[in-house]
Amino acid sequence: MLEIICSVLLIIGGLFIFLGSYSMVKLPDFYTRLHGPTKASTLGVGSIILAAIIFSAINGGISLKELIITLFLFITAPVAAHMLAKSALHIQVKQRKGSINDELFENAKQQKDSPSD
Amino acid sequence: MLALSLQFAIACVFISLLLNAWRLIIGPETTDRILAVDTMYVNCVALIIMFGIHTQSDVYFEAAALIALLGFISTAAFCKFLLRGDIIE
């Protein structure tokens, strides 16, 4: 039973990681490409780490130190995505045609002209 | 069954690493390349953990934690360099 759960988690994790990387190649501009790896790949790695925990439970001796990696990735992936989006707005990476919210670029330009810190 | 699904997941992560490398090579902007490197770090964590399952040893989790830590720090350093033009002011 545990082996079946472990296998299903591994397959789900592999598919989500592949989906995240495929969306990074497929999507048209940087701001849309940012979505795939930061959400889908993080979920895939979390699922694979869960499979590793269940596998160590099959072999006896459950160890929870893998959860540290999951926790760390789930905390740092949104922070890294936010920093990447902020630096992309700062160096004025082009949007795809037809995008809205142009005022974000204006805000970034104003922050560049008068740095607060 | 476990061995088969493990092979399937390792193949998925391998193809994902190839796609990341493609984005790293062609990426039109600098931020695209930083995103590709960050995703490669995350995929390498998954690959090392699956290698740990394959060899049935506990040693590899420390390596995975270390790589996750270094991936975040390198992404933060790259973004800081783009934002400020300098890493340590």
Task: Explain this structure.
The complex is a heterodimer of chains A (117) and B (89). Chain A is mostly helical and 117 residues long. Chain A has one domain. Helix content of chain A is 76%, strand content 0%. Chain A has five helices and no strands. The radius of gyration of chain A is 19 Å and the shape is elongated. The model of chain A has no long low-confidence stretch (mean pLDDT 86). Chain B is mainly alpha-helical and 89 residues long. Chain B has a single domain, classed as Helix Hairpins, CATH 1.10.287. In chain B, 85% of the residues lie in helices and 0% in strands. Chain B contains three helices and no strands. Chain B has helices at residues 2-26, 30-55, 60-84. In chain B, helix 1 packs antiparallel against helix 2 (30-55) and helix 2 runs antiparallel to helix 3 (60-84). Chain B is flat. Chain B starts with a helix and ends in a 5-residue tail after the last helix. The model of chain B has no long low-confidence stretch (mean pLDDT 89). At the A-B interface, helix 1, helix 3 and helix 4 of A face helix 1, helix 2 and helix 3 of B. Chain A: Pfam families: PhaG_MnhG_YufB. Chain A: One of its GO terms (molecular function) is sodium:proton antiporter activity.
